[in-house]
TrEMBL record:
SUPFAM superfamilies: alpha/beta-Hydrolases. The keyword tRNA-binding does not apply. It comes from Speluncibacter jeojiensis. Pfam families: LIP (PF03583). This is Lipase family protein.
Length: 412
């Protein structure tokens, strides 16, 4: 199993080819096209993770042996303030039989930064072959795992995507797992073991999810979580990312905070100049590549009324309190976690990831930590490389968790 995972990871890292993929009919009626992403009003009664609607989707790749059933899903979840919302995502199930022990495992993937426009939803990009998370999930599907990928709140569905808001993302990831188990697919039974996987934005989402599991989803059989380059401290990350290729993510973050905490909107607007207010409006409808092209290597001080950075304003009240509420590392994960980052990361402060590990370890969590000492290669690439480097080790680590192999207690 581990050798297969390693081989699959190598293939996925090189390319994501295209080919036809088998799908099934929707389990419940769904509107056509983008209407799929419009939730019913009012939302149906139900529990987090209940499926609202499904429809067949596509996943163009030849990197997997055998067909994969691909289903787009809308499911119930909860926002930052525990209010019911509808979120979409995609569930992939290999059509071949699971040949491992026990039921087929499920991996729930929290995707990395996509942007803030509805067109950036991973479920839309998977169908066209344009979603980079495919390089992560291909080897998992080749291994025989089912994989579920959330779009996160507000990507595809109405409203601003609350980028990096801790509880929203944790709920979305966990409820994506619940939804996949409730689809009724006999090949992923309700008692299937679950692992959570995420890098960058997804790493932050999974980091928050493993903290929330005991209180939010005690019934879910989660065996472990992979947490890659998590932005655990938004204020520090905003200052670190300023002037880099993905400086525009500061705009995503600010928009998301205003969306969930409207009481800070007057302070945000007062801190920005006209150019800054236009910056927030522009990035709210962009995908990551467009944001990089338009705002890459700018400094946020260009957009403020006093010439200080947006990161400086995030550390002042009334904004500071809502930024502090997004802090990850204060709650002990009750499942084993594998954390990774790089000394050359240009988008997430390496010291913050190391700090998260120390905080979890001090709380008594079981943490495997890998920090890669790498040279600087290129903007954004420096942030992305460790995700691929960790896969040949993190993949077998996850397989061991599915197999029930005990993880050494403590931190490594």
């Amino acid at each position: 199993m581990k050798a297969t995972m390693l081989a699959g990871l190598t293939v996925a890292a090189m390319a994501v080819p295209t080919a036809a993929v088998q799908t099934v009919a929707a389990a419940s009626p769904a509107p056509a096209g983008d209407a799929f992403y419009q939730p019913p009003s009012p939302l149906p009664a139900g529990a987090p993770g209940d499926v609202i609607r499904t429809e067949p989707s596509g996943f163009p790749t030849t990197a997997i042996k055998g067909p994969v059933t691909t289903t787009k899903v809308m499911y119930l979840s909860r926002d930052t303030h525990d209010r019911p919302i509808a979120v979409t995502g995609t569930v992939f199930v290999p059509d071949g039989p699971w040949r491992g022990p026990g039921p087929r495992p499920l991996v729930v993937d929290g995707p990395g930064t996509q942007g803030q426009g509805d067109q950036c939803a991973p479920s839309k990009l998977f169908a066209s072959g344009g979603e980079y998370e495919a390089a992560t999930i291909i080897p998992m599907l080749a291994e025989g795992y089912a994989v579920a990928v959330t779009d996160f709140e507000g990507l595809g569905t109405p409203g601003i995507h609350p980028y990096m808001n801790r509880l929203s993302q944790a709920h979305n990831v966990i409820d994506m797992g619940r939804a996949a188990l409730r689809l009724g697919d006999p090949s992923i039974p309700k008692d299937a073991p679950v692992a959570l996987w995420g890098y960058s934005q997804g790493g932050g989402a999974v980091a928050s999810a493993v903290e929330q599991l005991p209180s939010y989803a005690p019934e879910l059989h989660v065996v472990g979580g992979f947490v890659g380059a998590p932005p655990a401290d938004l204020a520090a990350t905003a200052k670190y990312i300023d002037g880099t290729a993905l400086m525009g993510a500061i705009g995503y973050t600010t928009n998301g905070l205003v969306e969930d905490y409207p009481q800070i909107k007057p302070a945000v607007e007062a801190a920005l100049n006209d150019k800054g207010r236009q910056f927030l409006e522009d990035v709210s409808t962009q995908c990551e590549s467009e944001t990089i092209a338009q705002f890459g290597f700018h400094h946020s001080s260009e957009f403020t009324s006093d010439g200080r950075s947006i990161g400086d304003h995030l550390t002042e009240e009334p904004i500071k309190s809502v930024v502090d509420a997004q802090r990850i590392g204060l709650i002990k994960p009750t499942v084993p976690v594998f954390v990774t980052n790089s000394t050359a990361d240009d988008l997430v402060p390496p010291s913050n990831v190391e700090g998260l590990v120390h905080e979890w370890c001090a709380l008594g969590a079981d943490v495997t930590y890998r920090e890669y000492a790498l040279p600087h290669v290129a903007p954004v690439v420096d942030h992305s490389i460790p995700g691929g480097l960790a896969l040949p080790e993190a993949g077998p680590w996850m397989a061991d968790r599915f197999a029930g192999t005990p993880v050494p207690a403590g931190c490594h």
